[in-house]
Specification:
Helices cover 33% and strands 13% of the residues. By secondary structure, it is an alpha/beta fold. The N and C termini lie far apart (55 Å).
Length: 262
């Protein structure tokens, strides 16, 4: 079970080995499949990629740019995780599974963040300077999500699986959909501690909008019928709705059975 966010300590540069120790410890807190240290060290690609990045980032800061890029490329080859050595990553960072994760050069990741496979922290500009996202402490990003541009994801926010985020997200909020839409204010979060992994229970703002439109159309049709105005009959061949779900259509279209070309 995930632990609550650790309170920020006064800003100071952490040593390399304390960082590595924290990186290993957090795996056991966030992955119930982790059984022992040997297993984590030898079979977790997210751990391997992060360990390599810690060393590559030190080389990058020391102006050893080419060796840093070589080490980063080797880590990508072995793990499938691409972390630019210039990216700044805080304490207790965990990449679960990890295949396909991409973290750009100017990305900044705070403490206690979690990423799942297929996540991209990418840029939207070819201009130098800050062009990748900033994740504040305790952010969780679901599988396949894309966060693009120099946006900021606030402390404790969650990004749902496959969401595409192109705007800032306030702390403790949840974002789903394409483009990302903020849902669930803090008072309606499913849990007050740890990390909520119930992505399938997140609301669908697009589906909700369609449902509202359908209800509105039904109300308007009822008003037209009550006024004695003849409404246009539904199309006899509503193949789109029938292929999706007959319950979505009414009248003749709902009574029809799908017709397939011979």
């Amino acid at each position: 079970m995930a632990t609550p966010l650790v309170e920020k300590q006064p800003i100071r540069r952490a040593g390399l080995f304390p960082l590595l120790r924290d990186d290993l410890r957090c795996v056991f807190e966030r992955d119930p499949a982790a059984r022992n240290l040997l297993e984590v060290l030898t079979t977790y690609p997210g751990v391997h990629a992060l360990l390599a990045h810690r060393f590559a980032h030190r080389l990058w800061r020391g102006k050893w740019r080419y060796p840093a890029r070589v080490l980063s490329a080797l880590a990508r080859l072995l793990t499938g995780i691409d972390i630019h050595p210039g990216a700044r990553i805080g304490r207790r960072f965990f990449i679960d599974h990890g295949m396909g994760v991409v973290i750009g050069e100017t990305a900044e990741i705070g403490d206690d963040c979690t990423l799942y496979h297929g996540v991209t922290l990418g840029g939207t500009s070819w201009n130098p300077g800050k062009r990748h996202p900033t994740l504040e402490d305790g952010v969780m990003v679901g599988a396949g999500a894309k966060i693009l541009g120099p946006v900021t994801i606030g402390r404790g926010a969650r990004v749902g699986a496959n969401a595409v985020v192109i705007e800032d997200v306030a702390p403790s909020m949840t974002v789903v959909g394409i483009p990302g839409r903020v849902v669930l204010p803090p008072e309606r979060r499913r849990t007050s501690h740890g990390i909520d992994l119930d992505h399938h229970l997140m609301p669908d703002p697009v589906g909700k909008a369609i449902q509202c439109l359908m209800e509105r159309i039904g109300n308007l049709e009822a008003q037209v019928a009550a006024a004695g105005i003849a409404a246009q009959a539904p199309e006899a061949d509503c193949s789109t709705c029938l292929d999706a779900s007959p319950a979505l259509c009414s009248g003749q279209a709902a009574a029809q059975t799908p017709r397939h070309p011979s």
